[in-house]
Amino acid sequence: MVRGCRWKREKGLEKQYREAGTKWGHGIEGVMGHSSRISLRQPPPMWEPQQPSVRMVTRLLLLTSALLSTCQAVESPALFTSVTLTLEPSNAVSQGTNVTVRCQALVSSSGFLNRKYTIYKDNTVVYTESITTAEDLIYSLRMARVANTGKYKCKVNIPGKELSSSSEKLTVTGLQTPVLSVDKRVFSEGEEVTVGCKAPGESGAIVFYFYKDSKELYEERVDANHVETRLRFNNAGDHRLHCDYRVILLTDSVPSNASNNVVVTVKELFITPVISVRPHGSMIIEGDNLDISCSVSGNLQNSSGLKVFLSKGPTLLSSGQSKANHSMRALAEHSGEFQCSLEVGNVVKRATENVRITELFSQPVLTMYPTEVFEREKITLTCKSTNYSSDRISSSDVKYSIYKDNYTLTPGSFNGIYVVPGVVPNSSGIYSCKADARMISKYSAKLPVQAKVLVSKPEITAIGRVIVGKPFQVRCHSDRGSLPIEYTLWKKYSEVNSTTVQQPHHQAIFPVTVQHYSDMQDYKCEARNNPKIDTVVSNKLNTTVIVPLSNPGLSVVPDLLEVTEGNEMYLICGVEGSPPVTFKWYRRGNVQPLFTTTSTQSSASHRIKGVGNEHSGTYYCEAINYANMVRSQPVTVDVKMATWKKGLIVACCLLVVALLALACVLRYNSKRGKRENAAELSVRSATL
Q1: Secretion signal: which residues (predicted)?
Q2: What's the gap between Cα 93 and its chain centre?
Q3: Contact by Cβ (8 Å): 463, 456
């Protein structure tokens, strides 16, 4: 529609705008805003802004309206090629499918063009939109229903012209099951009841039918997906009610008989379009002047309103009343079909000419060597056009330039080979090249170069606890380096295993078993991602090694023969292995330990104060670390009687013996005295 303003006609308006902008402290751009496509120079920066008056604002608005009206009056010529309507995903879909109605208009124009699209369904307008781009118009039918069934057509209007597509039939199958509702289930004979029928999600004109005992009772047509009515039931008893519906479609109408036939004759217009191309023949080479002419042959009388259009694809090259010409400097991309169209009223005739333009030289190809490069490595870039027209130029006439991230690396006289020095810290980037000859330039495809990063010194670590004699995992990892990276695990001078990490989330993990804690120092790993450079080696594997416990033993202090009542007794549990060690002491017959402690030493003790006879029994201990648990041999403790008790017993025994001896002596002496007294009395008696 609007290609550009005839700015020469608006000198006066521009002057008035600038005068108004001076008073406001703005340029004309400040007045017109971004909606105008006219670019004017900015006012000098020393202008001082002033407060605008209402009168000045009104004047500026009127001037803007006049200027935009003048701009819109300039139309760009245009030529219709075709209008096509398609239904996606297909012309026949099931209900609930999202359907896209796409209208595509092929229009050749030389500039800005306003297009008005109108979508029809069964000759009724359902959607209209105006756009200014060449994009297709999209009309969406979300969750299509049977009511969307019909014939769709698209019409496109451009200034002074319109063209319609052919009709496409959309068929939507499948209806939702209706739902019947009744306000009461039990009622009296002759009473009115409210009955409803609903078709969920449906639309359009619908006829609802109500049935009693499978016999049609009532029908009603509505433009909604539900209906309610009052029904009276006079027959007593149980009755079965249901409903159904029908969606009214135009295609379901009853057709009439065909009418009578009338023969008509269409007279041909004896004018034809003629297209000519110079130079003639097939040897048109890039750089040649290409002249294309579009004219009319035949009787031009009574051909008022005739116009001719010269186009290539969607691009309108030229137009005129009876002739259109176009000249250009031939390039390879201009090869293709040129079209000459004449238009008289609604009649359009076309003539085409296929033009083949030979390349002066081919599009350059940019290559690099080596194909994989690491940081600070030298890169050789080669830019070459493999083919050229030998009767016009030689290979030395083609000059090359190489670019990195749109910055020139080489001059225009470059011979096509460029070496990126290895001292460049970062050679990564997007490279391209350009070939020039006889004022024709061609660019190569972009060549992305990502310099690989050399692998850094790897770190070797153990995963989890390392226990002598049990398998564990060793991980090798480098913080920097482009994949793939090959990792190798070594034990002293022997290769244990190797693996290649291909993905960022993968790791180099090796299974290992050591038989002695000192073996850990023998492991190293190396990494490599560039076969031309030596591998980098890690430090020695350094981690805590847990030695399983062994040789548990329980000893008693004092000696078992010297454990006596009242003294202290120490139960000492000792093992060999890695601390920390948890020690537990048990007395046979008790499930719970007597004492538990954790020590960083290889032994620990349990003290029992004031040993008594009740402490006699069998004892053992258990030792636990991260590797295993061991139990000592049992030790039987027999608590001896205290020494003072033994002395007391001996003293008591001696005292008892002494008392018994004294008693015996006294008794003996008593009996002896009695005998002596009796003898003396006997003697005395005898004497007397």
Answers
A1: none
A2: 32
A3: no
CA dist 97 and 148 (Å) reads 11
Which DSSP helix (H) or strand (E) runs through 538?
Answer: none
Residues paired with 276 in a beta bridge: 293
* Distance separating alpha carbons of residues 306 and 312, to the nearest angstrom: 20
CA triplet 553, 559, 560: central angle to 5 degrees?
A: 85
- Using pLDDT thresholds of 50, 70 and 90, give the confidence band for residue 255: low
Span 363-386, mean pLDDT? 89
Asked if 565 and 645 touch (Cβ cutoff 8 Å), the reply is yes
Q: Which residues contact 22 (CB under 8 A, 6 or more apart)?
A: 43, 47
Q: Under 8 Å CB-to-CB from 629, ≥6 apart: which residues?
A: 549, 622, 623
Residue 492: CB atoms within 10 A of its CB come to 10
Count of C-beta atoms within a 10 Å radius of residue 496: 17
Q: How far apart are CA 490 and CA 662, in angstroms?
A: 95
Token representation of residue 239: 């009755």
What would the DSSP string read from start to end of 373-426?
-BTT--EEEEEE---B-TTT--GGG-EEEEEETTEE-S-TTB-SEEEE-TT-S-
What are the E-state strand segments in 165-204?
168-173, 179-182, 192-198
Residue with tokens 């007794």: 569
CA distance 622 to 587: 11
- Provide DSSP, 270-296: SEEEEEEEES-SS-EETTSEEEEEEEE
Give dist(CA 554, CA 595) in Å, integer.
Answer: 14
pLDDT in tens, 613-666: 888 999 999 999 999 999 999 999 988 876 666 677 777 887 888 888 888 878
Q: Is residue 250 within 8 Å of 122, Cβ to Cβ?
A: yes
Residue type, 193: V
CA dist., res. 554 & res. 515, Å (int): 27
Helices H / strands E in the chain, number of each:
4, 49
Q: How confident is the model at residue 258 (pLDDT cuts 50, 70, 90)?
A: low
In the chain, the amino acid numbered 537 is: V
Q: How far apart are CA 272 and CA 347, in angstroms?
A: 11
Token output for 340? 């000459």
Give CA–CA dist 245/424, Å, rounded. 79
- Whole-angstrom distance, CA of residue 644 vs CA of residue 197: 112
For residues 229 and 83, what is the distance between their CA atoms, to the nearest angstrom?
48
Q: What pairing do the DSSP bridges indicate for beta strands 459-463 and 485-491?
A: unpaired
The partner residues of 473 in beta bridges, in order of sequence, read 463, 511
Compute the distance between CA of residue 78 and CA of residue 73 in angstroms, rounded to an integer: 15
- Nearest Cα residue to 158 out of 50, 215, 247, 75: 75
Nearest 10 degrees: Cα torsion 119, 123, 124, 127: 0
Q: Are the CB atoms for 83 and 104 separated by under 8 Å?
A: yes
Q: What angle do CA 367, 373, 377 make, to 5 degrees?
A: 110
pLDDT number for residue 118:
96
pLDDT of 125 strictly over 60: yes
Can you tell me the distance from the alpha carbon of 473 to that of 494, in angstroms, rounded to the nearest whole number?
18
Measured torsion, CA atoms of residues 380, 385, 391, 397, in degrees rounded to the nearest 10:
-50
Bridge pairing between strands 284-285 and 357-358? parallel
